[in-house]
Structure formats: structure tokens, C-alpha cells
Amino acid sequence: MAYSLKSFEYFEPSTIEEATRLLSTYQPKAKVIAAGVDLISRMRHRKIEPQYVVSLMNIPGLTDIENDEESLRFGSMTTLMSLELLLKGDKTYAALYEAIHNLSSVQVKNTATLVGNLCVATPASDMSSALCALNAKLKIAGTSGERIVPIDEFYLDVGKTVLQPDEIVTQVIVPRPGSHSGNAFYNLLRVKCDVAKVNVSVSLTLDNDRCQEVRIALGAVAPTIVRAKQAEEKLLKSNPFDEKAIVEAAQTASTEVKPITDIRSTAEYRQEMVKVLVKRALEKAWTRARE
To answer: What is the pLDDT of residues 213-226, one digit of tens each?
Structure first.
């Protein structure tokens, strides 16, 4: 049952430094709010009851997006819709575009921020999977300074990240894939806009008929987003990189995960779908790398 919000003190700092100082002062009773899509819902359902809420809305630069020859960089207040419109028709970051495009409703994407989605730390996050495959890094600011954390080191468990109570993710940095590279995203839903039963993201780089680099990220099959590292190793050793290698890697990936059974799916079905979706994603990424 949803309730009205309990009273809390609301802050709108104008700098990152001010925001982190507020979080440090009022921890552990303070929470950061970006768009508030998840936070407000949890507050209404009494899952969390912060006494202080620190907004990022008035901090300059957090909606900035930079896309150049080195990387794609965007701030923590960048909406999903802003990124979807930027990436539409550009296959450089196809996995990220596909993850955003398949997510939720237009109304939610116009409001929700990608970084907010990441910080919820759900293992079924489509964006986390895509960014993991694309080797993204997160810029984090706190009272003691800034640090850069690879996204596959950001998550500790369901709902838990490496963020300290006084820290904020300020920017996402996605390295630009090199030449002869391709990436792709697939997920499996019960109904449109539902949380994924399984999601898979793949990024690879070819060197003639060999696989030079590959990252396979899997979501909703473990407490956090995970890499199928044994499957990746198999692909790197394959000579040549071909359909047979893809089938074998997909099979290997399915044996690397130990998913659970829940309201959305059984463990056995999830494991089987990892094999199916990894194969599809590798095939699509392979095709894109050769275009």
C-alpha cells in the first residue's frame, strides 16, 4: 500500500562540494534525489524513510553530454530520453541505445536518469548490463575527492554499491569502441516495460577472422551484473571466430550462472535463455563489427 510522504528536510545545493558536505553531515539519514522515480516510490511505500533529501537538480553540468572520438560522457542528471535521442541511428553504442529504447514508457524516460537507474543497483538493470559490456566507468565525488570506478566493480550485492554515504556519481564515461567493433543488447520480458527475466549485452572487436576483445555482461541471473568470463576466454582463443565458436561460447555462458527462481521465471528457464540470448547478441555484434 502506498502512503503519503513523511515529512523530511529538502536541500538544493548549487555545487557538488556542497551536496557531498550535506550528505556527510546528515548521514546515514540522508538520501540523494535525481529524478526521484525510484526514491519517491520507496518513500511512499515506507521502504526507506530519510529525514534529509539532497537534490542534484540545481548543480550545473550534471545534464551535460559530450560525445567525441575518445568517449561518450554524460552527467548524473542526464535523462534516458536525452541519451536515446542522441544515440538513435548511431551503432557505436548500439547496446546502450537498445537497452534504453526497450525500457519502460516514454513518460518515465523523459523523467528518469540513467545514473539513478544504476544506483538502484538492481541485478536486472538493462543499462548496467549494456554499460558493463561497453567497459564504462563511473566518476564518483565525495568529501575526500573524486575517484573513477569501473562499472563492473561498482556493485556489491542487490541494492548495494561501493558508494560511501557522502558520495555521488557525477558522470558516466563510456570509451568509444575502436574500428571493427560491434555491440548488441537483448533482454527477455514477460510483458513490455516489465523487469527483465534475463538480459545480455555483448561488445567485441575483430582482427580479421579472430576475436581480439570481447565482453559479455549478464543481468538478472545473479545478485549483480556479471561477466561471462569463461565464455569470453573461449572466444578469444577461437581460431577462426565463427558460428561454431559463438554456439560454444553461448553454451559456456549458460553454465557460468546460477540464477534463482522467482515470480518472473524459473532458474532453469533463465539459464537456458542465457544460452539463447548470448548467441543472438554475439551474432548481432559480429555482424555490426564487419559492417
So the answer is: 999 999 999 999 99
